[in-house]
Design goal:
Elements lengths: L1 E5 L3 H12 L3 E5 L3 H8 L10 H11 L2 E4 L10 E4 L15 H10 L8 E4 L7 H10 L4 E4 L9 H6 L4 E4 L5 H10 L1 H4 L5 E4 L1 H32 L3 H9 L20 H14 L7 H24 L8 E5 L14 H11 L3 E5 L4 H7 L4 E2 L3 H5 L4 E4 L4 H4 L3 H5 L6 E4 L6 H6 L3 E4 L4
Parallel strand pairs: 1-2, 1-4, 2-3, 4-5, 5-6, 7-8, 9-10, 9-12, 10-11, 12-13, 13-14
This protein binds uridine-5'-diphosphate-glucuronic acid.
The site of uridine-5'-diphosphate-glucuronic acid (UGA) has 22 residues, from helix 9 and helix 11.
Length: 433
């Protein structure tokens, strides 16, 4: 099938190359020439395991190409809209400018019978509003939200937990075309939900709101654990054995960040308020507040371990990305804590296996170094803020002779306290005695 993917950022680049891998002929279109050139030479402009190999394979096979020329969408039957919907600068609502611009750009190249498929995360009601423009030229609109996780994006696209098609009632044509697009996904027995526009839009934000709530729930328990001497990691294990609760996404620590969860819960609240249903989502304000409090708590813990004064202390920060296997630092709790400590006068030396360049763009004033060992040199305290495999595997003996004071703060509950304490270190973590 001939498919166009408009917007070749994180979502679009992965989607386009995954569809090419699934056997389609795909053209990825983006207005950013630098991004297009990079993708066309099989270089992902961001770190995503497996993506460079997938790009190389599908580009070489001739089933994938990238261009800035929108007219190349002509001839494709299905057109995916995969542009970003960031938070507006002056409010919590989502900024739909890129979605609207993408639609304006594709409409002149549509032929009757084509289907435009929205993948971007949008406020409920958007598809209904945008459909008019598409239907006016005899094409159809469908909404097919994306659930991929950074770090697992290719796997989540080729083998997702479910597919959701939001279509106009009775629009069997769009369903049939989407079934053809995802034929090899459906052949794996992956469930698909066919529904209306509003439900499809809501599924996406509801899923992210649930995940954010689950994380903030366990972080709220961490707050209580901190004043009672309880251990939140054991609490999570124990409640997680209840299959109705489940252990996944119950890792207490610095909380959630990234380009999705924080902006999606805020955008969801903003949209619900516009619709007069703001009360239903008031709890998400609390979810957001609990999440942000964890960063403050980490700074307080650091101050405590440093004997009350952050100013002038040498602080090693291991991890800047919002989570491991990603170079994304959008709303990253780790980068935020590093920056706060620097603002309070600490001599921060920060490192990350992938996110130094992205961090530098956002926080050029921080001091970045290449390795954990370098960061830890003469440190008064070492902070692990992103649970990269290589940080989880650090043996205390690797840092013993490097640091000035043997003190480690585990912001992600990813280290073994016994191992560190037995090696003579002060070990502190969020939600643990
Ligand atoms: C999230 C969702 O998980 C995807 O399903 C969704 O498609 C995506 O947003 C999106 O809307 O595009 P992602 O932002 O890649 O994916 O990251 P997650 O794996 O969900 O992690 C989010 C944050 O929560 C990270 O900062 C992570 O460190 C934190 N987290 C996660 C915890 O603090 N504790 C946990 O137990 C799990």
């Amino acid at each position: 099938m001939k498919i166009s993917v408009i917007g070749c950022g994180y979502l679009g680049a992965v989607h386009a190359s995954s569809l090419a891998k699934l056997g389609h002929e795909v053209v990825g279109i983006d207005i950013d020439q630098v991004k297009v050139d990079s993708l066309a030479s099989a270089h992902a402009p961001f770190y995503e395991p497996g993506l460079p190999e997938l790009l190389a394979e599908t580009l070489a096979a001739g089933t994938l190409e990238f261009t800035t020329d929108m007219s190349r969408a002509q001839g494709a039957t299905v057109h995916f809209i995969a542009v970003g919907t960031p938070q507006q600068e002056d409010s919590n609502a989502a900024d739909l400018r890129f979605v609207e611009a993408a639609l304006d750009a594709i409409v002149p190249y549509l032929t009757p019978g084509d289907v435009v498929v929205g993948k971007s995360t949008v406020p409920v009601g958007t598809a209904e509003r945008l459909a008019v423009q598409i239907e006016a030229v005899g094409a159809q609109l469908a909404w097919n939200p994306e659930f991929l996780r950074e770090g697992y994006a290719v796997k989540d696209t080729i083998s997702p937990d479910r597919l959701v098609y939001g279509v106009r009632s009775g629009d069997e044509h769009s369903v049939a075309l989407l079934d053809e697009v995802y034929a090899s996904v459906l052949a794996q027995g992956i469930p698909r939900v066919i529904t209306d526009f509003a439900t499809a839009e809501l599924v996406k934000v509801a899923a992210n709101a649930f995940l954010a709530t689950k994380i903030s729930f366990i972080n709220a328990m961490a707050e209580v654990a901190e004043v009672t001497g309880a251990d939140v990691t054991q609490l999570a294990d124990a409640i997680g054995y209840d299959q109705r609760i489940g252990r996944r996404f119950l890792n207490a620590g610095l909380g959630f960040g990234g380009g999705c969860l924080p902006k999606d819960i805020r955008g969801f609240m903003a949209r619900a308020s516009e619709l007069g249903a703001g009360d239903a989502l008031n709890f998400l304000g609390e979810v957001d507040a609990i999440n942000l409090r964890r960063r403050e708590r980490m700074v307080d813990l650091c101050r405590e371990v440093l004997g009350g004064t952050i100013e002038g202390a040498r602080v090693a920060v291991l991890g800047l990305a919002f989570k491991p296997d990603s170079d994304d630092v959008r709303d990253s709790p780790a980068l935020d804590v590093a920056a706060r400590l620097a603002e309070l006068g600490a001599d921060v030396r920060a490192t990350d296996p992938q996110a130094i360049e992205t961090s530098r763009r956002l926080r050029p004033g921080l001091n970045y170094v290449d390795s954990a060992r370098e960061a830890a040199k003469d440190a008064d305290v070492v902070l692990v803020l992103t649970e990269w495999r290589e940080y989880r595997a650090i043996d205390p003996s690797e840092l013993d002779s490097v640091v000035s004071v043997r003190a480690i703060l585990d912001g992600r509950n990813c280290l073994d306290p016994v191992q560190w304490r037995e090696a003579g270190w002060t070990y502190r973590a969020l939600g643990r005695p």
